[in-house]
Amino acid sequence: MRIVLVGPPGAGKGTQASLLAEHLAIPHISTGDLFRANIRQGTELGRQVDAILREGGLVPDEVTVAMAADRMAQPDAANGFLLDGFPRNITQAKALDELLAESGTKLNAVLDLEVPEEEVVRRIAGRRTCRKDSSHTFHVENKPPREEGVCDVCGGELYQREDDQEGTVRKRLAVYHEETEPIIGYYGEQGLVSTISALAPVPEVTRRALEALPGGGE
């Protein structure tokens, strides 16, 4: 099963990608993880990405495609994979189609996690992170700390990361609408897209996603 997972920031792609990949016994391939792994391993592509990111630049499509191609060629991806964060735009989507055609395969499905824009803003802008340990996270509505501004776990100060501020979230959404959302139409023309409402508890969204796959994910 070869799947692309797409959706706006705050849709829960990372969570769903991990759960779906585990259920289907295929690797979860995340662009962010690819970048970090190549940088950590000191590969040629990793050195290129590290230099670009240190200067605050965007990783070129050809570098992202090359990393993804290398990962998809690994033995554990022989029977399929779930792509999260790739392709990011139409150029990358076309490159992916070409890569798969060269290997005599194609995508089985594109799952579009749908969340209203104001819900995305509410989810992300409400996050609060511990300054002592960033793995300790809370939400002003969904998971408030016992004492406002104080981490329940270690007593550290809770703060709102710059990436989580409303203005930044709306800019990220604008980039998503401009760059990534068009791939939904591109894959829709190929009959591959299933739109999944992500306004539900995590297990229910996973169930909906599995049901939308060819053969119900079996």
Structure report:
With 218 residues, this protein is of the alpha/beta class. It has a single domain, classed as Rossmann fold (3-Layer(aba) Sandwich). It has helices at residues 13-24, 31-41, 44-54, 61-72, 90-102, 117-125, 166-180, 182-188, 202-212; strands at residues 2-6, 28-30, 81-84, 109-114, 127-130, 137-139, 158-159, 193-197. It has a five-stranded parallel β-sheet with strand order 2-3-1-4-8, sandwiched between helices. A three-stranded antiparallel β-sheet has the order 6-5-7. Helix 2 packs across helix 3 (44-54) and helix 6 (117-125) crosses helix 7 (166-180). It is globular, with a radius of gyration of 18 Å. The chain starts with a strand and ends in a 6-residue tail after the last helix.
Short overview:
With 218 residues, this protein is an alpha/beta fold. It has helices spanning 13-24, 31-41, 44-54, 61-72, 90-102, 117-125, 166-180, 182-188, 202-212; strands at 2-6, 28-30, 81-84, 109-114, 127-130, 137-139, 158-159, 193-197.
Labels describing this entry:
Adenylate kinase, globular, nucleotide biosynthesis, nucleotide-binding, 8 strands, P-loop_NTPase, 9 helices, ATP binding, Rossmann fold
Question: What are the SSEs and their pairings?
Answer:
Elements: E1 2-6, H1 13-24, E2 28-30, H2 31-41, H3 44-54, H4 61-72, E3 81-84, H5 90-102, E4 109-114, H6 117-125, E5 127-130, E6 137-139, E7 158-159, H7 166-180, H8 182-188, E8 193-197, H9 202-212
Parallel strand pairs: 1-3, 1-4, 2-3, 4-8
Antiparallel strand pairs: 5-6, 5-7
